[in-house]
Amino acid sequence: MIADWCRELASFPESVWIAYAHSREPLRRLVTSEDYANHFHASDSCGVEMARQVRGDWGDISCRELAEKLNVKLEWPAMPEGNGLVTFACYFEPDRIQVYTDNATATRSLIQESGGVEFLGDVDICEMLLAHELCHVLQHRQPELYTNRKHIRLQKIGPWERRSRLVSLEEVAAMAFAREMLRLSHSPMLEAMLSTFGCHVVNYGIVVDDEALLSQKVNQAIAECDAVLLSGGSSVGVKDAACRIIESAGQLLLHGIAIKPGKPTILGKAGKKPIVGLPGHPVAAYFITKLFVQPLLGRLMDRDMTAYTVTARVTESISANHGKAQYHCCRLVKKGTELLAQPIRGKSGLITTLAGTDGYFCISRDCEGLPQGAEIQVTITSGV
């Protein structure tokens, strides 16, 4: 049942999550849905950048090590003191965090027993909770952050006005911070896609940022499988080891392509076996799997995997970066005899961007955008 719930939650479009966050905002009546969506995206980006700044300052440290660096006192009581609520963790200003181990352990056991582990892999629940609360510590200490600066006006009488923060945005940023710090996997999406291609998928699990251990897993996969995919670690940071590991295992063919999203893609081979390093962001991984992995697997299996396309007109103008092929998800709507493509806006780090997608289209690298009403070719997606 838990696995089914997870699948259902993963299928929700981003708009549902934004609406939910908006509904939990105490000042929701003072913020329009459109404005809140903009604040949501900015706060999500804020959380991601905070995590990247942490790694830039201290390397790829654990959340417990980060707490020590920040001089935060960690407490691990079994349960919170009688507030009657199911609470997992709490931050007490200015420098104390409690993680409630009984609830965390019970959650992990429930996930494992119910098949939901496919969505979290081997992620430590306590580490995930701690990451969330550590973001609140950083928010408390950094008044310049977007979540601290974004205020709305409550009252205005002459020159005097009263303003307040949108507190739900702090939670949005904290969830993004935890997701980025722990580099949460999106392997269920990839497994589903590969299965629809006719592949038997062997999942080697989430591997911690240990280059020797990752190299061992890659070599094991090369020995046991016909093709190898790595998810994440394909960028240019010190801890992004996929490029070095592929090169040591065989031959590095390319690192980086002129495409958005998906620029840090890696292609290599070990003997006659292809190795693909996918970007860590879910939407980027989705497009690289569709554009490169699917036809590659088709050749290995001697199967025609040509995608089905339809002609449609885009419902709004879209700008593009000259020099990169730019891919967009869209929904298809029939209006009279005409087929319309509605672009789905969203960041490459949000898997919800893919929910409700009917297909995708490309703006070529020599084009600076499309005007409203432009005729496009939409590649139809099925299921995933």
Structural class: alpha+beta
Would you list the SSEs in sequence order as H and E? HHHHEEEHHHHEEHHHEHEEEEHEEEEEEE
* Main β-sheet, spatial strand arrangement: 11-14-13-15-17
Largest sheet, in brief, is: 5 strands, mixed, barrel
Shape: globular
Q: How many beta-strand runs?
A: 17
| Weakly predicted, low-confidence segments | none
Alpha carbon gap, first and last residue: 21 Å
In percent, how much strand structure appears in the residues?
15-25%
Helix count, DSSP H or I runs of 4 or more residues:
13
Radius of gyration: 23 Å
Characterize the structure shown:
The chain has 3 domains: 2-182, no CATH class; 187-299, Molybdenum Cofactor Biosythetic Enzyme, Chain A (3-Layer(aba) Sandwich), CATH 3.40.980.10; 309-380, Beta-clip. The chain contains 13 helices and 17 strands. The chain has helices spanning 2-11, 14-23, 33-58, 63-69, 101-113, 117-120, 125-141, 146-149, 168-182, 187-196, 211-224, 242-249, 282-301, and strands at 73-75, 89-92, 96-99, 151-157, 160-165, 228-231, 251-255, 259-260, 266-270, 273-278, 309-314, 318-319, 325-335, 338-343, 359-363, 369-370, 375-380. The chain has a 5-stranded mixed barrel. A 4-stranded mixed beta sheet has the order 6-10-9-7, with helices on both faces. A 3-stranded mixed beta sheet has the order 1-3-2, covered by helices on one side. The longest helix has 26 residues, at 33-58. It is globular and about 65 Å long. The two termini are 21 Å apart. The model has no long low-confidence stretch (mean pLDDT 84).
